Amino acid sequence: MSASARSVSSVATIPHWIGGKTVAGSPGRSGDVFDPSTGSVTAKLPYASLDELNECVRIAKAAFPSWAATPPLRRARVMFRFRGLLEAASDEIAMAISREHGKTLADARGEVVRGLEVVEFACGIPELLKGEHNENVGTGVDAFSIRQPLGVVAGITPFNFPAMVPMWMFPLAIACGNTFILKPSERDPSASIVLARLLHEAGLPDGVFNVIHGDREIVDGLLNHQDVSAISFVGSTPVARHIYTQGTMNGKRVQALGGAKNHAVVMPDADLDDTANHLMGAAYGSAGERCMAISIVVTVGEDTADRLIEKLVPKIEGLRIGSYSDLNADMGPLITSEHRGRVRDYIDSGVNEGANLVVDGRGMFNDAREGFFLGGSLFDGVQPTMRIYREEIFGPVLGIVRVPDLETAIQLINAHPYANGTAIFTRNGNAARTFTGAIEVGMVGVNVPLPVPMAFHSFGGWRNSLFGDHHIYGREGVRFYTRLKAVTQRWPRDVEHRAEFSMPTMK
Ligand code: NAD
């Protein structure tokens, strides 16, 4: 039986959040939201029409002047209250995430914490918005710079972190004085409505934060709307490229974070027990559906791969795969039945192209089992020409590429089109230092498998993993959501009644 055939007729409808309240979508296009652990439909999602989008932008635009004029300290206080409410509601949010995404509850709770940290960072906005000042740049002339908000900004987010990725964006955008429209993934939109309710309870004025549902049509509506000043996007590379091209062509500021293929280099001297444990979490946690997941291991030296495979195989075969309600599960299902089919096709292609499938996750579950589950797979003998090496799989599949030395490993990684994250496992400080210096990737770990920067740093990849000039959150986030103004002022005591036509210089 197909997943959609299992859908039940009386499911809840998820509302939009516009102007400080829930808004039921008008009849029209809609989508099904699934519980990936059971394969059944749990809710209907209305896709907004362009008229509804226009109304949402109008409300966000109307809310902007008074929010922008609200002192940063008061904006910070709203964030501070939101932080407390968020912490108190973290179980509710984690449940909303797990039910629609499928990840384990522990994983979902971790996601909420990483989002909460950005809220904590945003609480420091009065300090973060401080400009620079020079007294007496000329006699009696002072100069200073200030950062001002942009207006209505939009965030378009992927399915894999339905709470954390929106929180990479809106806490800073709002704290900087912008109003915000979130277009969450249509796969798992419920968490965003809980976040909207909590912001409202925290005292955020109506219209400052809005959530509108939809697919490509509504994204294109945001890209083409003249009153949307900036777009933050996180998702796959083809869509990121489209968002960046179209958005910048329409004069918007855009940061568009794309897909990934993250390599971990394992040196011969690495602690392989420790490394294998790290790789398990990094490759198979969240069923591999993380943009920072390790999907390729580059083993350096003669027998490093053989020794590592010996440690990995029993762990992969012993993975506990189950629903989020199973508190012992290591990982859950994939997001949709179609995506599971795509991941299986990648495994088939790896076999057909001659890689050695050491652990085969395809047969672990059959389609008779409800839910979009797939076992963990491991390939050895992966070659850079293979599809399973070149393309992002976004599933529980790890591949091993064997190379003779660190230099070859670095060249290999630097030649890959994706450059989001990478890591090296070694006990050798010099190898780690050489790697961190020469590697052309945005986020680098040394014996840290998922080097996701903390909220007070910034997150972003290089090459096809990010389009735009700004990384996300941290100080880069403040720069993205504000524009710089330089003011030069004088308050003359003795006014000279004489025009001056040459270029002003310091006198
Ligand atoms: P996706 O690109 O399919 O969707 C992301 C968002 O774009 C969604 O809101 C979706 O509605 C919208 N969208 C989809 N197709 C569109 C189109 N043709 N035109 C306009 N909008 C469109 O991504 P996904 O499947 O939800 O998420 C997984 C992808 O996100 C992976 O590639 C993963 O690597 C990437 N990701 C990257 C990061 C990062 O920080 N670089 C973080 C998380 C996820």
CATH architecture of the largest domain: 3-Layer(aba) Sandwich
Radius of gyration in whole Å, from Cα? 25 Å
Strand fraction equals 15-25%
Number of helix segments?
Answer: 16
Poorly predicted regions are 1-9
**Largest sheet composition:** 7 strands, mixed
Number of strands: 23
Query: Numbering strands along the chain, what is their spatial order in the largest sheet?
Result: 15-16-17-14-13-19-20
Mean of residue pLDDT values: 95
- Give the terminus-to-terminus CA distance: 83 Å
CATH class of the largest domain: Alpha Beta
The CATH superfamily of the largest domain turns out to be Aldehyde Dehydrogenase, Chain A, domain 1
Helix content: 25-40%
Count of domains = 2
Outline: globular
Compounds present?
nicotinamide-adenine-dinucleotide
What fold name stands as the CATH topology of the largest domain? Aldehyde Dehydrogenase, Chain A, domain 1
What class, by secondary structure content? Answer: alpha/beta
Description:
This protein is α/β, with parallel strands linked by helices and 507 residues long. The chain has 2 domains: 51-258 and 465-486, Aldehyde Dehydrogenase, Chain A, domain 1, CATH 3.40.605.10; 262-446, 3-Layer(aba) Sandwich (Aldehyde Dehydrogenase, Chain A, domain 2), CATH 3.40.309. Helices cover 37% and strands 22% of the residues. The protein is built from 16 helices and 23 strands. The chain has helices at 50-69, 72-88, 90-101, 105-122, 125-128, 164-175, 190-201, 216-224, 237-249, 272-284, 304-317, 337-352, 387-390, 406-414, 429-438, 474-480, and strands at residues 12-13, 16-18, 21-23, 30-35, 40-46, 133-138, 141-149, 152-156, 179-183, 209-211, 228-234, 253-257, 262-266, 294-300, 356-359, 377-380, 397-403, 418-419, 421-425, 443-446, 462-463, 466-467, 482-490. Strands 15-16-17-14-13-19-20 form a 7-stranded mixed sheet, with helices on both faces. Strands 10-9-8-11-12-22 form a 6-stranded mixed sheet, sandwiched between helices. A 3-stranded mixed sheet has the order 1-5-4, covered by helices on one side. Strand 9, helix 7 (190-201) and strand 10 form a beta-alpha-beta unit. Nicotinamide-adenine-dinucleotide is lined by residues 156-161, 165, 183, 185-186, 215-216, 219, 234-236, 239, 242, 257-260, 291, 392, 394, 420, 461, 465.
